[in-house]
Amino acid sequence: MGEENKVVLHGMWISPYSKRVELALKFKGIPFEYVEEDLQNKSPQLLQYNPVHKKVPVLVHNGKPIAESIVILEYIDETWKNQPRFLPQDPYKRAKVRFWTSFVQQQLCESLLTVIKTDGEVQQKAFGNLFEKLEVLEEGIKEIFPDGNPCIGNYNIGLLDLVMLSMFSPNNKIQEEVFGMKIIDPEKTPLIFSWLTVLHQLPLVKESTPPDDKVVAIFKFVRENALKSSLA
Amino acid sequence: MEEVKLLGTWASAFSYRVLWALKLKGVQYEYVEEDLFNKSELLLRCNPVHKKIPVLIHGGKPIAESAVILEYIEEIWPQNPLLPQDPYERTLARFWIKFGEDKFPIFYKFFHSVGEEQVKATKEAKELLKVIEEHGLGEKKYFGGDNIGLTDIAYGWIACWLGVLAEAAGVQLLDAESFPKLQAWADRFKEVPLIKDNLPDPDQMLNYFKLRREQLVASATS
Predict the structure, then answer these.
(1) Looking at chain B, which residue has its C-alpha nearest residue A63?
(2) Chain B nearest-CA residue for A106
(3) Lower Cβ count inside 10 Å, N or C end of chain A?
(4) Chain B residues with CB inside 8 Å of A52's CB?
(5) Cα–Cα distance between B50 and B8 in angstroms, integer?
(6) A10 pairs with which residues across the strands?
C-alpha cells in the first residue's frame, strides 16, 4: 500500500459502530489495515487519535485521525467518490437520509442499548420505546422504498443501510435467545424486516457477520456486565 | 426562486441556528413563529416524527433537525461557505457539531435539576465546556477559523443562551477565568454584525427562562 493513501481502522470486532466503518471500506474497495483494540486495555495510539471520546472506531487516513462512525462514513464517501455512493446527489434526498440516519442512531440504537443493559421495569419501558420507534421508522422508510420491498439485485448500499444493518438484523433466533422475543418482527415491521434481510444477505455483510453463538455470547456478556455494574 | 419558510420559536437556540445560516447566506425567507403549546397543522404535517421546531420548508418540501437543515442550507446556497472546502477540515467541523448535539442533554441537565443532582450536572457541564475549549476551539479565533462557520453557529447557544440559562437556574458556568478562550470566542461571536442584529431580547429571554425554571423546579420537587 502506497504511503499516499494509507488507511488504518482501529476497531473492535463486536462493536456495531466499528463494523459499519469496516463494511464501508470494504464496499468501496478501499484497502486498509485493521487494528483490533482491546477496550479494557486501549492502545496509546487510540487514546492519542481520539482523546475526546477514547472510543472505537477511529479511521486514520494518511496519519490524520477521524472519530465518530457517522462522521467517518461521510468522510469516506466524500474522499473516495467511487460507487457505491453513501449519500444521494440530490440535496433534499441527502437531507432525508441524514434525518433517518440521525433517528436510527439517536433513538433506535439508544433504546436497543437500554434494552440490552437493563432489566425489570426499566427494560420493559425501553422495549416499549424501541417498538414504538421501530414503527415510526417502518412508516418513514416507505418514502425511501416507494416500490415496497427492497430486493437484493444491484443494491446500492448507503449511509442509512450501513448504520441500520450494523445495529439490527433479521435474525430472530438470536433475538429470541438473548431477549426472549423478536426485536425485528416480520409481522409488526415487515418493511424493516425485508430490508434487513436483503442487507444481511449481501455477500460482504454475510462474510463479516460472526457466527450466531459468538453473537449471543457477547450480548449476554455485555448484559451481565451492565447489570452487575448497575448493582454496584 | 423557490419559497423558503422557517418554522421556529423566538427563544430557541436551535431555531436561531437556522435563521443565522440563512441570513449569512443572504437567503430571503418567511419566518413563522410557532406556539409550542398549540402547534400548527403545518408543523405537525412537516415534522410528524418529532413534532419539533425548527423546520425549514423549501419549495414546499420540509426538512427537520437543525443539524440536517444546516447541511442542506450549505449545499443549496453555496455562497459564503460555512463549511471548509478541505474534506478533513470539514469532517472535523462535523465531529464538533455532532459532539454538541450528542452532549446537549447532559449540558441542559443543570437547568432541569435541583440540589445534589444540579451540583453534579453543573460539574459535568463544565467538564464538557473544557473539552470543547481545549480540543474543539484551541487557539482558533472561531471554530471555523478566521470566520464563523457552521460549528460556531451550532455552538451559538453557548455564547448567547448559556449565560441566561445559568442565571435563571442559579448556577455559574461559563466565565472568563475558568474558560478564557471560550469566553473570548463567545464575546467575538456575539459581535459579528449578523449575529448581533439577530438575537432574542436578553431581558425577555431571562424572564422566559426564569419562568421555565420555576415550573421545572415545582414539578421536580412536587
Answers:
(1) B88
(2) B102
(3) C
(4) 99, 131, 135
(5) 14
(6) A35, A58
Query: The C-alpha cell of A84 is what?
Result: 457505491
Which chain A residues contact residue B75 at CB under 8 A? 91, 94
Judge whether A218 and A108 are in contact, CB under 8 Å: no
Contact (CB<8Å) B98/A70: yes
CA distance linking residue A125 with residue A2, whole number of Å: 52
Q: Return the SS3 of A36.
A: strand
B158: its cell numbers? 453557548
Q: Which of B71, B90, B131 sits opposite A98 (nearest CB)?
A: B71
* Contact between B164 and B11 (Cβ < 8 Å): no
Q: What is the DSSP letter of A156?
A: -
* B61, closest residue in chain A (CA to CA): A92
Q: Are strands B55-58 and B4-8 parallel, antiparallel or unpaired?
A: antiparallel
Amino acid of residue B30: E
Cell digits for A147? 416500490
Model-level pTM?
0.94
| Cell numbers 462557520: residue | B149
Q: What is the mean pLDDT of residues B5-22?
A: 97
Cα dist. A36→A10, A42, A225, B82, B166 in Å?
A: 6, 10, 21, 36, 43
What pLDDT was estimated at residue A143? 84
Find chain A residues with C-beta within 8 A of B94's C-beta: 71, 74
Residues above pLDDT 70, as percent of chain A: 95
Interface of chain B against chain A, CB under 8 Å? 49, 58, 61, 63-65, 67-69, 71-72, 75-76, 87-88, 90-92, 94-95, 98-99, 131, 135
Half-sphere exposure of B2 (CA within 13 A, CB side): 9
User: Residue A35 phi/psi, 5° resolution?
Assistant: -115, 115
State yes or no: pLDDT of B62 exceeds 80. Answer: yes
Percent of chain B with pLDDT over 90: 95
Contact by Cβ (8 Å): B149, B83: yes
Identify from A5, A66, A104, A138 which residue to disrupt to test chain B contact, counting B C-beta atoms within 10 A and taking the largest count: A66
Q: H or E element: which one contains A131?
A: helix A120-140
Location of C-alpha cell 456575539: B190
Residue of chain A whose Cα is closest to the Cα of B85:
A78
